Amino acid sequence: LDEFALIRRHFARPASGIVTLGIGDDAALLQPPEDCETVVACDTLVAGRHFAGDADPADIGWKALNVNLSDLAAMGAEADAFLLALTLPEADEDWLAAFAGGLREAADAGGVCLAGGDTTRGPLTITITAIGHLPRNSALRRDGARDGDLLAVTGTLGDAGAALAGHADAELQRRLHRPRARLEAGRVLRGLARAAIDVSDGLLADVGHICRASRVGAAVRADRLPASEALAALAVPEEHRLAWQCGAGDDYELAVAISPQALDAAQAACLDIGVPLSVIGRFVVGERARLFDAEGKEYNGITNGYSHF
Amino acid sequence: LDEFALIRRHFARPASGIVTLGIGDDAALLQPPEDCETVVACDTLVAGRHFAGDADPADIGWKALNVNLSDLAAMGAEADAFLLALTLPEADEDWLAAFAGGLREAADAGGVCLAGGDTTRGPLTITITAIGHLPRNSALRRDGARDGDLLAVTGTLGDAGAALAGHADAELQRRLHRPRARLEAGRVLRGLARAAIDVSDGLLADVGHICRASRVGAAVRADRLPASEALAALAVPEEHRLAWQCGAGDDYELAVAISPQALDAAQAACLDIGVPLSVIGRFVVGERARLFDAEGKEYNGITNGYSHF
User: Fold this and answer.
1) Any chain B CB within 8 A of the CB of A55?
2) What are phi and psi of B174, to 5 degrees?
3) What is the DSSP string of A109-135?
4) Binding-face residues of B in 119-138 toward A, CB within 8 A
5) Is A152 helix (H, G, I), strand (E, B) or coil?
6) Edge-to-edge, what's the strand order for the sheet holding B36-46?
7) Torsion from C-alpha of B227, B178, B193, B129, nearest 10 degrees
8) Contact check, Cβ <8 Å, A28/B44
9) Nearest Cα residue in chain A from B30
10) E strands along B22-149, which residues?
11) Does A198 reach chain B within 8 Å, measured CB to CB?
């Protein structure tokens, strides 16, 4: 059994867009438009760490691609293609078919094509390399935030954390298992935001990455954090909700730095594509992200994000 | 401990060449020259399958990069950068320092820079994505061979197979553990060869990939297979030597299809960079690669290459 052939069968369409040579050669070829930069990112999901070994393989396929597309979204990039490196303990055709199905759904939703990859035998591990492009010098980097910029976030925070904590609500579970990379929001914020990151490790940790790269601090307002109806409906202590919103990660929203002058345009652009953009704080002189209540009192003990080890 | 920070310390030089943004953002940015295509490939090495768990970590780092650069070489590409997705069972600083050292050596030898990646906790697995570029429409694909073309191979075959079979000669062991991607040969053969592949799975299997993609057959001459002095010096039965040369793989030489008219120029170009290019057969009407002796009698039972499962 050739696993990659099976996966490929689920990707009936040949190379498309800027991909000039796809699966089946030593490497894939891409032809970015004139005056563009190529954008590449890779992330690994390990069974038993990033997902349960017995999780729905369609969800695993969907999520594996979206966490990588989310990195392209955070740069403001157009997503083009991806490479799949799949390590599998055994040849299980049912599992593979379901995995490939979820992966293809995600590829269709993200407008990307499978351009190549590798299958190997070993403990279940999925590494995806996402490839995109954007006009030269237009990337939303982490190092562009300035003291005085506003901190804003797309969508809502905390659903994935609540789901991971065991709340069975279908909408919360969907956010955890079927995150959707904010590719459109990243694109419309290109040229409007000064810095961006995707919320994967946890809001405070991720905003902290912008702080370190930009040599600023951030003051996050707990009372401004956007919550979904599903999350707001949970009868849980505030510190649980805050921990999920600020520390749990896995939301795959975009956190951006925006100059006060650009805020109206950024919110209008996001509204146009149906994505709320909420101001949740401000970049300040400092060196890390801190959480405050409406009266300016700092929260302590709210986890600073998912640590990979 | 942040493993990626440790690895990064071994790559002191910042982003260079066409890499405009390296490690430390959501994604890396590359700026290929005008009228070029981007070339990307990824391969995974799994502990216990592609290398022994207790192998020298410097060798693992070297080889993990070179097997990926070899895919770029087989396209005739210029190698620019790579992403490292490293899954590790535990934080072992000595192991990591040695691994990163071997990886950096390989990066320096190949002229590529580390542009990003991911570290995760789990069973030891290394996925590298290699990124390069080449002038538009100049790639050495697998599908360009024609009936009547010559089959040629760079360097020598079989050393890695002999080493894997237990022969302790230092030169043989070096070929197995420290393969060097034929990047220069790939580049000089661009425009001269009609098709190329790197010999990773085994000569007959890999030439078979060219055959399938090009819809031709190949007749390989056993008596023409180039052997190193170290391999020739081994007192072993012919079928062992042939199995290593034709089936063992891991040689990372390039096998190419060349029109008879282009042979002199191709051999001269390879000679200029000190790489022998030996004609070992011919592409013919057919659909797979077959091995013959000098009298035209076919060999049977020579393994057709490394099967990933």
Assistant:
1) no
2) -65, -40
3) HHT-EEEEEEEEESS-EEEEEEEEEEE
4) 119-123, 125, 127, 129-132, 136
5) strand
6) A19-21, A28-30, B36-46, B125-135, B78-88, B113-121
7) 150
8) no
9) A38
10) 28-30, 36-46, 78-88, 113-121, 125-135
11) yes
The count of other CB atoms within 10 Å of the CB of residue B308 is 14
Question: What pTM value is reported for the model?
Answer: 0.92
Whether B72 and A120 lie within 8 Å, measured CB to CB: no
Beta bridge partners, B254, equal B198
Q: Which of A19, A35, A38 should one mutate to test binding to chain B, selecting the residue with the greatest count of B CBs within 10 A?
A: A38
Nearest Cα residue to B242 out of B225, B219, B218, B229: B225
| ipTM of the complex in this document | 0.90
Non-local (6+) Cβ contacts of B272 within 8 A are B188
Contact A207, A283 (CB under 8 A): no
Contacts of B39 in chain A (CB under 8 A): 27-29
Contact B122 A119 (CB under 8 A): no
What tens-digit pLDDT sequence spans chain A (309 residues)?
477 777 777 776 666 778 888 888 899 999 988 899 999 999 999 999 888 888 999 999 999 999 999 999 999 999 999 999 999 998 888 999 999 999 999 999 999 999 999 999 999 999 999 999 999 999 999 999 999 999 999 999 999 999 999 999 999 999 999 999 999 999 999 999 999 999 999 999 999 999 999 999 999 999 999 999 999 999 999 989 999 999 988 999 999 999 999 999 999 999 999 999 999 999 999 999 999 999 999 998 765 544 443
State whether residue B38 sits within 8 Å of chain A by CB: yes
Separation in Å, CA of A205 to nearest CA in chain B: 14
Decide the pairing of beta strands A217-221 and A289-292. Answer: parallel
Helix residue ranges per DSSP H, chain B = 3-9, 57-75, 93-110, 159-164, 170-177, 183-189, 203-214, 229-232, 238-243, 263-272
Which residues have C-beta within 8 Å of that of residue B61, sequence separation ≥ 6?
B98, B99, B100, B101, B102, B103, B104, B105, B106
Query: Is some CB atom of chain B closer than 8 A to the CB atom of A109?
Result: no
- Whether chain B has a CB inside 8 Å of the CB on A17: the answer is no
Phi, psi of B259 (to 5 degrees): -65, 145
DSSP for residue A246 = I
Of B40, B116, B122, the CB nearest to A131: B40
- Spatial distance between the Cα atoms of B180 and B28, rounded to a whole number of angstroms: 25
Structure-block tokens of residue B286: 């057919």
DSSP A47: B
